[in-house]
Amino acid sequence: MPNGEPAAPSEPVQRSPRLDWYEAFATDFSQIDYLPGRFMERGQQVAIVGDGKVGKTIFLHDWLWRCVSGRSFLGDEPREPLRVLYFDRENSLRDIVTRMEAFGAKPVELQERFDYRRFPKFTGGLDTAPLAVAELMAIVDESNPDVVVLDTVSRFIEGKENDSDTWLSLYRRVHAPLKDRGIAGVRLDHMGKDAEKGSRG
């Protein structure tokens, strides 16, 4: 290309598909597909944020056990069991098992639908390394989950935790592709340095 300009992608139309308005308007959006507990919809991306040791993971583990076993949560009616993919760089095996036992969970309820990955070894941060993202998405393809969890999300990034660019990059590389597939995403995080400003990202 002249002046050293990069060539345009060979298939730009396929990479940026155009919305079909007739098809979009024909879609039935009258029924909201809530996940158990009705605090998030299928495909939605949420952050569970709080100070350390306030019970974020306990809350989430209880919810996810109920998700995979088809139990009710927060007074919501029982729903069809979901598939969960959990990436954990925070909790010991003892913490996980004793917590599940306290909930009343059994291995038979968890084995097929609760895909739990302890201390996964990605090649770099999910906000900076395309290979790390490709590794994560390969596991997503294999697991075929309804929900993907990052616990704690700050353990999966390389950029500065209080820089907005870090979280924008994580959203672009991980959360947006999950959302496009209709996969819910949950990230656990601690408050930033200034708690009055709310969560990071």
Overview of the molecule:
The longest helix is centred in the C-terminal third of the chain and has 17 residues, at 164-180. This protein has 201 residues and is an alpha/beta fold. It has a single domain, classed as Rossmann fold. The model has no long low-confidence stretch (mean pLDDT 89). The protein starts with 11 loop residues before the first helix and ends in a 12-residue tail after the last strand. It has a 5-stranded parallel β-sheet with strand order 1-5-4-2-3, with helices on both faces. The protein has helices at 12-15, 21-25, 56-69, 93-103, 107-110, 130-143, 164-180; strands at 45-49, 84-88, 114-118, 147-151, 184-189.
Give the gist of this structure.
The protein has helices at about 10-15, 20-25, 55-70, 95-105, 105-110, 130-145, 165-180, and strands spanning about 45-50, 85-90, 115-120, 145-150, 185-190. It is an alpha/beta fold. It has one domain (about 40-190): 3-Layer(aba) Sandwich (Rossmann fold), CATH 3.40.50.300.
Rg for CA atoms: 19 Å
Highest-level CATH class: Alpha Beta
Shape: globular
Number of domains: 1
CATH architecture: 3-Layer(aba) Sandwich
β-strand percent reads 5-15%
The number of strands is 5
Which strand order spans the largest sheet, edge to edge or round the barrel?
A: 1-5-4-2-3
Low-confidence stretches: none
